[in-house]
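Q: What would this chain look like folded?
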Amino acid sequence: MNEPVAASLGEPPLIDHRKTFADVTADVAAPTERMPGMMWKAAFGVAVVLVIQMVATIGYQFVNGLGILGIMHPVGWGTYITNFVFWIGIGHAGTLISAILHLFRQRWRTAINRSAEAMTIFAVMTAGLFPLIHVGRPWFAYWLVPYPNWRLLWVNFRSPLVWDVFAVSTYFTISLCFWYVGLIPDFASLRDRSTGWRRAIYGIASLGWRGSERHWQHYERAYMMLAGLSTPLVLSVHSIVSFDFATSILPGWHTTIFPPYFVAGAIFSGFAMVVTLLVILRKVFKMEEYVTLLHLENMNKIILVTGMMVGYAYATEFFIAQYSGSEFERFTFLNRAGGPYLWAYWTMVTCNVVAPQVFWFKKFRRSIPVMFVVSLLVNVGMWFERFTIIISSLHRDFLPANWGYYRFTFADWSVLIGSFGWFFMWFLLFCRFFPAISIAEVKSVLWTAKQNALPAGKRAAGAVHD
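A: My prediction, written as structure tokens:
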């Protein structure tokens, strides 16, 4: 909600107008200027340990082959592809918050967009690991790159797997540029507050920013253009990921509902992860005055809406399966809900459809413990959604003689848990050395709050004093 509208409705402003611009800079820059506390060190240590054991497991796989995983006939795609689709979905909320909400001038995004953008970068970095290690011999991955070569081999450009490469790499590139451009004014603020080697590094990162009118004009144009480029990516990238399944003829996958269904689910899981991260960040780094309950409540409303969209997609899938007249399609969906993997299906439904319904009540939307638990449940449910789509559609083939049951091995669990360690390791480093909240954008919201706090005459004259 815009600040003037919020003021007219008697709602509190996003940022306390008694804060000065100097207060904002000092508060947001504080975590980068002091030594991290024991909570940060403990969390970072756990994340690094998880990454080390994941790397060890992957190395063991490279030596001994993919047989150490649970994949078998007919389940050729296991937890690696499940993790890939899950982490790509996590990365969607960052671009949505940054690009689409920016284009719609939603000012409540200003305190949360930086962390969401960083989450996008690290989630895509995590997702990118799994296609490489899934091929079994990643040192031959250069064969997949379409370039003229003596082998006269070319990738199949009609395959959605190739579309994935272009879509995800484009998404990562644009998101990285968008994130970095937004950081430039804040790097300059940190540069001016630093000394020694830190000042040199922030000086290089700020690209000579001086805050002149010309710099701000170029910044606004670049930021708007990148927002415009990012917006269609939010809708296209996970649609293309869904084509990995939708373009096949396998029952349970061959459906046109997958593109919008996957996009809604990606936004759903992405916002849940942002809530999880911000609840922790605002507590650990004392940012309650900037990441307020109003910010979190707005995100919980989006989680509620997208959760209902996902629930509608689940119901539509079942209806279409029964209406299609295909006995194989009917069997696949009845097998999901009542077969060997019913535990995964009903975990998905409970976490994704039932749990977010508590957000109909304002008391729960603004309750930190409730939103934290629900956000965790949503991400558990979204992982099981990917697991259900992939595994339950593969484990029972057209011939009963080919049926099998996918069982997790230690390697599956190790890499899955290690992927969270990899993600949180980068996010913790980001919070340590980068401003986790956009200083420049929060100041623009603060200026509006000060305007609303002034008498009408002074407000019209633009008399804002710090």
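Confidence is low (pLDDT under 50) at residues 1-11, 459-466.
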